[in-house]
Amino acid sequence: MSRRTAFSAQTLAVLTALAARPSDWRHGYDLARETGLKSGTLYPILVRLADREIVEACWEKGEPAGRPRRHLYRLTRDGLAAATAALATAPAPATRTARPGRAARPGRAAAPRRLAREGP
Fold first, then answer.
1. Mean pLDDT, to the nearest integer, of 17-37?
2. Cα(43)–Cα(28) distance, rounded to whole angstroms?
3. pTM higher than 0.90 for the full model?
């Protein structure tokens, strides 16, 4: 079985966020806020990227007061090259337009329109 090389739109969003600051360690909550992805989507992506050695992960050093230690992520050297190549060939994300009088909310799909029923 061949290994998949194309990345999903959600994975591309994570790679974009990580590639913006490739040498910085980023925690999952930070990436979730930036990408708009929920934890049930984000963390499996980070695990798969780590398994493919595109992302390296470690635990935060020390014992922060008032919260548990965070798991931190950043692109590997090969991961940065893979992310750059994937982002260069990826199609541009579709832009959503807001309905008149309503602001578009990032990360949220528009609600489906309901059709009016005719007569009784």
1. 94
2. 7
3. no
SS3 content of the chain, % helix, strand, coil (to 5): 40, 10, 50
Structure tokens at 101: 């009088």
Contacts 24+ apart (CB under 8 A), 91-98: 93/9
Question: If you write DSSP's letter for every residue of 17-51 in order, what string do you get?
Answer: HHHHSTTS-EEHHHHHHHH---HHHHHHHHHHHHH
Stretch (H or E) spanning 58 = strand 55-59
11: exposed, middle or buried (Cβ count in 10 Å: 0-12, 13-18, 19+): buried
Dist. CA 87–CA 105, nearest whole Å? 24
Q: Which strands sit side by side in the sheet containing 71-75, from one edge to the other?
A: 26-27, 71-75, 55-59
Nearest CA among 32, 22, 88 for reference residue 56: 22
- Over the stretch 37-67, which tens digit does the pLDDT of each residue have? 999 999 999 999 999 999 999 998 888 888 8
Among the listed residues 6, 81, 79, 73, the one whose alpha carbon sits nearest the alpha carbon of residue 43: 73
Is the pLDDT assigned to residue 2 strictly greater than 50? no
